[in-house]
Amino acid sequence: MLKTINIDLLNKDDFLEKYNHDEVSHGLIEYLIQEGKNISKKDKLILNIHVNFQNDLNIKDMLIKALNKEYINTINDHYFNNLFQILLFLLGIIFLSLSTLFKEGVIWKEILLIGGWVPIWEMIELELFNDVRGRKKKKIIKNLIHSQINIQ
Q: What pTM was estimated for this model as a whole?
């Protein structure tokens, strides 16, 4: 099925970052990702960009470069998220192991037991929610990169 995302650029400030005119606006990239959420991988995507200013920019190449940069940032976020999950897991295991050193009825045993499960549950939450969002975002960006871009 054919899906279309229309973008109206009234001036260069709609396309370029406010403080760095060598980069595409982060707001535009976020808009494209938001609009791409409802598009499946099987759909053929077309980006129609209506330029209403003197166009001396290479809009298509700059947009693809910005999408690639966002894709790499998403991969890096996933990598650091995984490192944080490993750290939480190890911290939980250490606290759970330390809780076995105390006798039953000692308050420190319960504190360490609870303190061990909290980071493990936090790790599970990160895996269930953040990783799923990151994978979905990567699929959307990949779909946007391989879409047909029409500049009008």
A: 0.81
Q: Cα dist. 43→38, 144, 148 in Å? A: 10, 11, 12
E strands, 10-82, where?
Answer: 44-51
pLDDT tens for 56-105 read: 778 888 899 999 999 999 999 999 999 999 999 999 999 999 998 888 87
List own/partner pairs for 56-59 with CB under 8 A and 24 or more apart.
57/12, 57/15, 57/16, 59/9, 59/15, 59/151
Q: What is the pLDDT of residues 93-107, one digit of tens each?
A: 999 999 988 888 788
Instruction: Tell me the torsion sign for CA atoms 51, 54, 59, 62.
Output: negative
